[in-house]
Amino acid sequence: xxxxxxxxxxxxxxxxxxxxxxxxxxxxxxxxxxxxxxxxxxxxxxxxxxxxxxxxxxxxxxxxxxxxxxxxxxxxxxxxxxxxxxxxxxxxxxxxxxxxxxxxxxxxxxxxxxxxxxxxxxxxxxxxxxxxxxxxxxxxxxxxxxxxxxxxxxxxxxxxxxxxxxxxxxxxxxxxxxxxxxxxxxxxxxxxxxxxxxxxxxxxxxxxxxxxxxxxxxxxxxxxxxxxxxxxxxxxxxxxxxxxxxx
Length: 247
Ligand code: OAD
Ligand code: ZN
Description:
Elements: H1 2-11, E1 15-19, H2 38-41, H3 44-47, H4 50-55, H5 57-72, H6 78-89, E2 93-97, H7 103-110, E3 119-120, E4 123-130, E5 136-138, E6 161-165, H8 174-186, E7 189-193, H9 202-211, E8 215-219, E9 232-234, H10 238-246
Helix pairs in contact: 1-10, 6-7, 6-10, 8-9
């Protein structure tokens, strides 16, 4: 199956890659669903919705501060690096990610290929956005989530800032979603890595590629929502399987 997948990649000209939390699992970033997933011990509606932030911004920021410090200690793994190599070898590759951890970008910059950027569907955990004027900026400093005053505030208008991520019930960044869907509709090969496929509209990017007739390869150690539509399912860890495909 590895040989078959390699041949499919060689033969393809327009590739769309969709990644989820599983691509960063071997870097030490927790996934959301499954045994050790974040949604096992945390209620999404208390932490990842606009209503939760309006009600209790301090609790929401404490959770994001914890995730940021956890992610800041993580390094890209062989899966992230292989995807940078793939983008170098196959110029017409669009990398789409649901991840907010920045590890695709970090792998690209470590390879001296900062141009190999992912199309982000769910934002970035190291960016913040003003709740009033919507001014957005990078923010990597430690967050002292001990009082409302200590939380990040907008340099332009002084209002409270929130994590620049997409929460449940919110719309995705329109241009990024459009780019992802266009790449999927035009793709002859779709590589799906480490996503359960349970969150829409992100999952519709893969649905679009499958519906458009793209050869679809799913890399995931567990079952996903895309398995029935996939041409090939490679049941394994991303950091082990992807280097075999792209080497
Ligand atoms: P999930 O936690 O739903 O799925 C992670 C997938 O990664 C599962 O299918 C696992 O089997 C797989 N996995 C685990 N370890 C792996 C490994 N080493 N290699 C490859 N795959 C592995 O995460 P996502 O599908 O990314 O949304 O979740 C989608 C969205 O739901 C997230 O972007 C987030 C979450 O709520 C927002 O924050 C808006
Ligand atoms: Zn502002």
